Hints:
Helix content is 38%, strand content 23%. By secondary structure, it is of the alpha/beta class. It has one domain: 3-Layer(aba) Sandwich (Rossmann fold).
Amino acid sequence: MTDRSEFLAKVREATARGRAHRVALNPQATHAAAYVGGGDDRIATFLNEWIAVGGQGRRVTGVNEARQFLDDFFNQIRPASALCWSHPLLERLEIGRLLSERQIAIHRWDELEREPADARWPAAFSADLGLTSVDWAVAETGTLALCSHPGQGRVVSLLPPAYLALIEPSQIVPDLFDLFERLEEHKANLPSNVTLVTGPSKTGDIELKLTTGVHGPGNVHVLVVET
């Protein structure tokens, strides 16, 4: 028997053994039984879960505190350029003005997506920082849910090495089940892509060595802006 034949024979044997172990559904694992929720303070729950998986996060009250955080954040990250969503929250916080004051080049995705590819992608790939809001965030798992809309491309949260999501409490749902309900409510207008972000990009090899930031940002932050 050749090496190839031996290999395929082992695969067939393993497959046959695997058929004996069927998945049994647990009738107790219903929506109600499996629902965890976001606790009494869903902002705190979300931030705790987000930080537990390697992200960094803060909650602030009001526009002034948010801008003070952003001042400190930009001084810490020191980006030369930033890739930005078009979003009402970013506009209220005057992200464009704050970046311009620090002479940080601004690449707005709503403008880039109208550019030809040879102009769009060099700017996107060279950005040091991605700035977005979210459609929803999940307190239970510390997850951001971002839908691709005009002016809100998925690459803004995926390409730059550093990433900051600015969100409001109203965007935080308690549980992953709640996120699916929101998606169901909007199914008639769902985009082609919904990205779920839970902490920084991570990958592991066969020796169980975890590496951060290989397939996306390794430095990820969330700012929750309360009114």
